[in-house]
Each structure stands twice: as structure tokens, then as C-alpha cells.
Design goal:
Elements (H helix, E strand, L loop, with lengths): L2 H8 L5 E4 L2 E2 L10 H12 L7 H4 E3 L5 E3 L8 H18 L5 H21 L3 H15 L3 E4 L1 E2 L19 E6 L2 E12 L6 E4 L14 E6 L5 E5 L20 E12 L3 E4 L2 H40 L8 H26 L2 E2 L5 E2 L2 H26 L2 H4 L12 H7 L8 H15 L2 H12 L4 H11 L2 H14 L25
Parallel strand pairs: 1-11, 5-9
Antiparallel strand pairs: 1-2, 3-4, 6-8, 7-8, 8-12, 9-10, 10-13, 11-12, 14-15
Length: 498
Amino acid sequence: MSAEAYRESLRSLAPRVYVGGDLVASVADEPRLEPGINAVGLTYDFALLPESAKVMVTTGLSGDPVNRFLAINRSREDLLDKLEAVRLTCQYGGCTQRYLTHDAFNGLWEATWRITQRVGGESHDRLKAYIAHAQANDLAIGIAMTDGKGDRSKRPSEQVEPLSYVHVRERRADGIVIAGVKAIVTGAPYMHEFLVLPCRRMRPEDRDFAVACAVPIDAPGVTVVSRPAGRPGNAAAKFSAKFAQSVAAVHFDDVFVPWDRVFIDGETEEAHLMTTNYASHHRHSCIGARAGFGDLLIGAGALMMEANGLELDRIAHLKDKMVELIKITEGFYACGVAASTFGEEDAAGNFRPEQIYSNIGKLLLANQIYDMHRLAHEVSGGLVVGLPSPEEDHNPATAPMIESLLRGRPDVPYAHRANVARFIEDLTASETGGWYSVISLHGGGSPEAMKMEILRNYPVQDRKELVQALLDRGALDLGKGPARDKQPGRCCTKGCAE
């Protein structure tokens, strides 16, 4: 589909969506959701452009061309292309949201395969059929993963209010009935369907909460309660008035799901494998997304310095700050490239990003998003938040004075300087800027989750044995002993155990 065809497809649906206390009559025509629909639309239009088709289009399960964000990874090159596709679309849209579908499909692939291998049944075949359906219809699918969670000190099955987690309320001959709330669903109002996933490790007593299934957005019993996407209609919002994202709570009130749309039902160990794999894929995607965001800050900062009359090459402290901003952006992106290059093939034939580099890259960007904002502020100056409101640009009593006296370089119009300043304010110092900070910190899991995965997967024991061998022998027999890294794919790109 094109972006316009995607928008038109939303008009054929009748979801129950609330924004700002209002029941939305038509999602596709709601101004408060327009920036989110625009951002997702980029993932459609970029797939139609010849110059971006290499990264945006790949081969689907049927052998036909499909959107990269609906595809299963079959190689390390697929991982690299997905990373680049995320960065490309987010350079224009900030957060284009649809790549979460890719992460969920790939997270489920091995888990459902293992269920079928262990107990038989149709779990993996159902998933393949659903992915083929999504690819054939070029769907936008919202990932309903993060539950309300209730009392964080208690497990899902211990909650006083069990509906704080989505769970299976009833199992019938023709399907299941689910109930509960998902608290943070990216792009929820303008998706075609939801993919419901468990958000944490489940124990056997939590089996009713270990459920993965697909639900149409307008299925009976589904209610979406959403934030507006960005700051539509705000003249100062030079970016988020056009491109942004909604985040919503989605309530499932005894929603029926037929068995062919159920992929995990009570298989707690495979559900845990799914959450782990999804985390690796999604943190890998987050790296590409925030690299695209960093590209916007780098470009805007350079334009602002130019409008201020400052030459980057001649002012040492500005040069240092710009290099620092570039270093941060390309530093965590390099972890994404490494995670792709050392990607690991699982037993089901899916390639996932190498976990250590994925988690380090996400941890770096989560902590350094605030440094990225600070550096953009430092190279741009205080006018970013000191500029009069856009209404004064058209006020006969103030506009001539502002245009004349708030200009920087004589050959740079005031309007250009003001637009760049407001662009940086929108991305870093507004409600939108705060949103990017928090979503970068907690999106894909908190920094503590990344630290746990790094320690769980890093070969600390190998490093200990390396040093112990040096202490014991004084010198190492090259190629022998425990000093060789035992992780396949860590010494080269062959993925072997050499």
C-alpha cells in the first residue's frame, strides 16, 4: 500500500477509540491522530521508492515482495537492512512505530516452533498463516505487550485486580476469551490489528497470563484510550505537528479470539523465550530509531549555529560538542551494526541480533538521550526556548521589531532562524521532547533490564579463565585453553564454533 491507501484502509474499520475524553468518529480523519498516521505512512511510502526499496522491501513467506517491517529475518543482512530501514524512516518521522510488528513476529517465530516441537499442535503453523495474512494485506499491527501490572511486588496470578494483566478468562471449543488491560500500546488508534503478547516471565501458576494472540482493532470488547499524537495544530511544533506517535491503554473486555489466532496459550517457558527474543529484536530496532533522531538533532544544531553566525570549524567548544553528539549517535548505532553482523541463527531458522551488543546499544542510548538533548541546547543557544510565540510573527505591532532585531546572520532570514529554533525546542524542550526522553529510557525495557541481559549473556567466566590461565602458565598457548571465546559468531561472521 501507499500511505494514502493505508489511511483509506483505516476508514473501513470501526474501532472504539477515545482521545482527550472524546469518542473518535473516524480515526483516519481525527486531527489529534494525524501526526501518528503520517509517521506510519512513511513506512508505506518508503517501500515504494526505488532508492529505498533495498532496505524497505524483502521476500515474504509466499515468495512475494513484502514490507521489511512484516518480514522474518533469514540472514545477518536482513538484520542490517532492518536496522537501516528503521533509521531511514525515523530520520523523517521521529518514531515510525511499525517496526515493532517486525520485532514481535521474529520474537514469536522460535517460541511457537519450539511449542510445536515439544507438544505438537498448530502453534507455529498458525503464526506462519497469520504472518502471511499480514504480509499479503500490508497490515499495520499494534504490539499490545506491556500490561497495567497492578501491584509491582506481586506476580500476575497474585494480583488483587487480575485485570491489570491480560489473561485467558475462558477456553472454549472454538477459541479463547481474554480480559485485562495493556497499558502502553504504541500507535494503537491507527492500527489494523493488535498482537497481544505477555510482558514478563511467567511461572506455571501464571499460565493463564502467558497468552499470545491476534485481535482486530474493532473486535467486540476492545476499547482504546489514547493520547494525541504529538502536538497537532500547534504552530510552534515544527516537527510533532506533522510526525509523532500516539500511545494508548487498550482494554480487552471479554474479547473472543478464535484458535487460529492463538499462538501461545499457557506454555510459560516458550512465552519467556518469546519475551527474551522480542527484547533483543526491539532493542536492536530502538538503536536504529534513536540514530534517526540523533540525525535530526545533528542537522538542526548545525543549522542553528549557522543562523546564529557561528562557524563550526572556528569555535573549538562548538566543534567539541558537535563531535560529542555525533559520537553518541554513531556509537550506539555501531552496536546495532555489530549486533547485526554477529547475528545468531536459532533452531527455527530465524536470525536474531546478538544479545550483548543489542543490549549495550540500547543501554547507551537510554542513558545518553539526555546528553543528546543537552548538547543540542548547548550548540543552539537560549533562543530555542526564549523565542516569542509564532503568533507574534504575524502581529503588526511586534512582527517588524522581532524580524529586525532577532535576526542572527544578516544573510539568514529571521523566519529561518525561528523555524530551526522551534524545531529544536519541539524535539528537546517541549512535551514532545520530554516524551522522547522517557520513551528512550524505558522503551524496550528499563536500563536495569538491559543490564540483566548483558550480565546473563556476557562470557565473564571465559574472561576469568583467560586471566587465570595467564597466571598459572605465565604465557598462553595460542589457540588452546579456555581463553578462546566460546560464543559462536563472536570471532567472525561465519556463525561457526571455530
